[in-house]
Design brief:
Length: 333
C-alpha cells in the first residue's frame, strides 16, 4: 500500500531585512517533538538547520530521510517538509533562514553574477549532510551560529564571509561528486555546471504552486496575468486561485504585490534611486499604486522607510512585518 502523503497546509514565511537577510533561531527551547506533524510546511527562503542532539527523520512528501546529531540540513525555498524526532527523544536544533543571493550579491566574482545560489540548483543536491562526511560544512555552520548569536563588532561582515565560504564548500562537494560519477561511467549527459530554470524539477517534493512561486520570484518586475500563472501549474484560473489561497493564506495578486514591495525595500536601502524609478523597477505601473501598497504592508511610506533604514534604527527594522503571514518562531508542541 502506498504511503499516505500529507496535504500542505502551512506556509511559514519570514521577513529578512534587505541590508542583512539572515535570521537565527536558536536556544534551548528549540526541541523538536517526536510526534510527526499532521502537515508539511515550506518557507520563502533557504533554511539551514543543524541537529545538536539525538536523532529522527525529515519527511518530503512520502520520502523519509533519517538525521542524527551533527547533521546539517539545507532546505530550499518552496520545498515542503516536516521534521520529527525518534520515539522517546526530542532533538535539539538551531536554524538559519537566509536569502543567499541578497546576502552575497556584493561578494561574488563577476563569473558568478547570474549563478543561482539556492542549493537545489547544484546537481544531485543532498538535503542532509553528516558531520562525519562533511566536517567543513558542520564547522562553518557552527561558526555562523556563533557569530549571529554573539553579535560582536563586525559580525555582519564575518557572517557574509562565512556564508560565502559555505556555498563554495557546497559547490566543491557537488563538483567532486559529479566528477566521480563521470569517472565511474555514470550518465551525466545533459548535466551543466551552469544552472537554468529548466534544471530544477519539483518531482521529488511536489509543491503544487511551486512553478508559480518560482516565476514570481524571478519575474516580479514584469507584467503577467493570473491566467499565465495558472497555466504554469496546469490549472484553470479559478482552481489556481483557490489552491493558492489555501496554501499561502493570501491571494495570488496580493502575493505578487508583497513580493514587489519586499524587493523595493532592498532598493530603497541600497540605492539613491527615486521612488518613481524604484516603483517601476519592481513592476508597479504607477507610483501612486506603489505608495498605496507600501503603506498598507509596511505601515509607513517608502520615504519614511528609507529614512529609518539610513538611520540604522535596528529596533524599528525588527518590528517591521513585510508579510501578512508569520514565520516559525517557536517549535511545534
Amino acid at each position: 500500500m502506498a504511503k499516505h502523503v500529507r496535504t500542505i497546509t502551512e506556509c511559514r514565511n519570514y521577513y529578512l531585512a534587505p541590508h542583512f537577510p539572515v535570521l537565527l533561531l536558536t536556544g534551548e527551547h528549540w526541541k523538536i517533538s517526536n510526534v510527526p506533524s499532521d502537515r508539511l510546511h515550506f518557507h520563502n527562503c533557504l533554511e539551514i538547520g543543524i541537529c545538536h542532539s539525538d536523532s529522527g527523520c525529515m519527511e518530503f512528501y512520502g520520502e523519509t530521510i533519517p538525521f542524527k546529531e551533527g547533521d546539517v540540513t539545507f532546505i530550499p525555498r518552496n520545498v515542503s517538509h516536516t521534521t520529527y524526532s525518534d520515539p522517546g527523544v526530542t532533538s535539539h536544533w538551531s536554524y538559519l533562514f537566509v536569502d543567499p543571493k541578497g546576502l552575497l550579491k556584493n561578494s561574488l566574482p563577476p563569473a558568478w553574477e547570474n549563478f543561482d545560489l539556492q542549493p537545489f540548483r547544484f546537481q544531485n543536491f543532498q538535503y542532509i549532510l553528516s558531520r562525519e562526511q562533511y566536517p567543513a560544512v558542520y564547522q562553518l555552520v557552527m561558526l555562523l551560529i556563533e557569530e549571529l548569536r554573539e553579535e560582536k563588532p563586525g559580525y555582519q561582515f564575518t557572517t557574509t564571509g562565512l556564508m560565502l565560504a559555505l556555498y563554495i564548500e557546497i559547490f566543491r562537494i557537488q563538483s567532486e561528486e559529479r566528477e566521480e560519477k563521470n569517472e565511474k561511467g555514470g550518465d551525466v549527459s545533459g548535466e551543466k555546471m551552469e544552472n537554468t530554470e529548466d534544471d530544477f524539477s519539483h518531482s521529488s517534493t511536489p509543491l503544487p504552486i511551486a512553478p508559480a512561486l518560482d516565476y514570481i520570484e524571478n519575474n516580479y518586475m514584469k507584467q503577467f496575468s493570473m491566467e499565465f500563472l495558472a497555466g504554469l501549474c496546469h490549472w484553470s484560473p479559478t482552481h489556481f486561485r483557490r489552491i493558492f489561497q489555501s496554501v499561502m493564506r493570501i491571494s495570488p495578486l496580493n502575493y505578487v504585490n508583497h513580493t514587489r514591495i519586499q524587493k523595493s525595500c532592498s532598493l530603497l536601502c541600497s540605492t539613491e534611486d527615486s521612488i518613481l524609478s524604484i516603483s517601476e523597477a519592481v513592476g508597479f505601473q504607477s507610483v501612486s499604486s506603489y505608495n498605496r501598497y507600501f503603506v498598507r504592508i509596511m505601515q509607513m511610506s517608502p520615504r519614511e522607510y528609507r529614512r529609518q533604514m539610513l538611520q540604522s534604527d535596528k529596533q524599528a527594522v525588527q518590528n517591521m512585518s513585510i508579510l501578512e503571514y508569520s514565520g516559525w518562531m517557536y517549535p511545534e508542541e
